[in-house]
């Protein structure tokens, strides 16, 4: 600062800065890469019908984001690929038998209502894909909870492996059936994103290696779910079999790809631990005593609503501050 008469002048110079090559589009592209193996298995398993569900969902999400921003005269951000990921995750949460128009409705709800009306990427307070799935469950439950084995006109309507496990008397899945769920090849019993668990896990590991996501949320999410399912088993204390249950359904997909959403998860390290534990606890409660066999959708959405409070309560204390 220099004084010249009564005027004060501040000389502002640049500080040393680190330039990071990580951009939003780069992060989103890594997420897409992590999902590609599971997408390929879905295309192989569900054929043209499953492929169409994924394609319509992605195209609709991109279109609604582009059209909303065009109408509202806002910068076009479809190049960040976030709408593409939302479309993939919406499709992964439904069976391949859903009418294609439901994907258009879900995409509109996710992109326009949940995301854009609240300010766009980073401003939404709940995960758009999960909010869209919750909307579909409420509006069209008969369409998004029926799994048609074989996808043929005379196919047998059957339960998913998770539903079978939750309702079976012995609660002991056949090892071969679990193996099919883990790898996904040849399996059509479940939502599009629920039939290749190993590939979802490998995709999550890829994101961890790339440092796109932090380990705290998925580890505490999956761990808490497993512990609670073990302790509060379906037939009494310590009768659970979490080594089966955690690989059935959408737990891995939710833990690695949905709960870790930057905009809807805590920023602090302790907050991420609390968030993961909360998601796991609610998931286990819904699975054990709720009306839905899965639980991850509502678990994450409920915890999304608590993120501002979690961040406030777990904010690191400034040294010397009262």
SSE layout and pairing:
Blueprint: E1 2-4, E2 7-9, H1 24-71, H2 82-92, H3 100-115, H4 128-139, H5 141-144, E3 147-149, E4 156-158, H6 161-167, H7 175-183, H8 197-209, H9 216-231, E5 232-233, E6 236-237, H10 242-245, H11 251-258, H12 269-289, H13 296-313
Antiparallel strand pairs: 1-2, 3-4, 5-6
Helix pairs in contact: 1-2, 1-3, 1-8, 2-3, 2-4, 3-4, 4-13, 8-11, 9-11, 9-12, 12-13
Descriptors:
6 strands, mainly alpha, two-stranded antiparallel sheet, single chain, 322 residues
> What is the 3D form?
globular
The count of domains is 2
Please give the count of helices: 13
Instruction: Report the average pLDDT across residues.
Output: 84
Question: Biggest sheet, strands in spatial order?
Answer: 1-2
Round the Cα radius of gyration to an integer and report it: 22 Å
* Sheet having the most strands: 2 strands, antiparallel
- Tell me the helix content: 55-70%
N-to-C SSE string, H for helix and E for strand: EEHHHHHEEHHHHEEHHHH
Uncertain segments are: 10-19, 151-158
Strand content: under 5%
Class computed from helices, strands and strand pairing? mainly alpha
Strand count: 6
Distance from first to last alpha carbon = 31 Å
Can you characterise this structure?
This protein has 322 residues and is mostly helical. The protein contains 13 helices and six strands. It folds into two domains: 24-143, no CATH class; 156-174 and 208-312, no CATH class. The strands form three sheets. Strands 1-2 form a two-stranded antiparallel sheet. A two-stranded antiparallel ribbon has the order 3-4. Strands 5-6 form a two-stranded antiparallel sheet. A hairpin with a 2-residue loop joins strand 5 and strand 6. Helix 1 packs across helix 3 (100-115), helix 2 (82-92) packs parallel to helix 4 (128-139) and helix 4 (128-139) packs across helix 13 (296-313). The longest helix has 48 residues, at 24-71.
């Amino acid at each position: 600062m220099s004084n010249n008469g009564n005027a004060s002048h501040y000389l502002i110079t640049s500080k040393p800065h680190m330039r990071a090559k990580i951009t939003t589009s780069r992060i989103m592209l890594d997420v897409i890469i992590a999902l590609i193996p599971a997408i390929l298995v879905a295309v192989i398993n569900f054929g043209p019908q499953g492929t169409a569900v994924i394609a319509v969902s992605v195209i609709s999400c991109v279109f609604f984001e582009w059209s909303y921003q065009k109408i509202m005269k806002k910068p076009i951000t479809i190049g960040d690929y976030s709408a593409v990921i939302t479309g993939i995750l919406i499709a992964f949460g439904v069976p391949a038998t859903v009418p294609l128009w439901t994907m258009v409705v879900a995409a509109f709800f996710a992109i326009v209502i949940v995301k854009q009306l609240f300010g766009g990427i980073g401003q939404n307070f709940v995960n758009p894909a999960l909010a869209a799935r919750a909307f579909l469950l409420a509006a069209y439950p008969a369409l998004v909870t029926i799994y048609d084995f074989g996808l043929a006109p005379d196919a047998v309507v059957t339960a998913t492996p998770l539903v079978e496990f939750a309702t079976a008397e012995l609660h002991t899945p056949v090892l071969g059936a679990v193996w099919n769920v883990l790898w996904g090849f040849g399996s059509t019993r479940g939502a599009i994103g629920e039939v290749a668990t190993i590939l979802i896990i490998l995709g999550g590991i890829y994101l961890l290696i790339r440092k796109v996501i932090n380990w705290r949320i998925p580890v505490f999410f999956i761990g808490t779910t497993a512990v609670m399912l073990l302790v509060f088993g379906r037939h009494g204390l310590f009768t659970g079999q979490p080594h089966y249950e955690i690989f059935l359904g959408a737990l891995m997909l939710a833990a690695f790809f949905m709960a870790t959403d930057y905009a809807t998860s805590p920023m602090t390290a302790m907050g991420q631990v609390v968030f993961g534990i909360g998601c796991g606890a609610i998931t286990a409660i819904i699975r054990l005593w709720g009306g839905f066999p899965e639980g991850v959708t509502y678990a994450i959405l409920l915890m999304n609503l608590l993120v501002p409070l979690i961040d406030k309560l777990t904010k690191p204390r400034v040294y010397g501050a009262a």
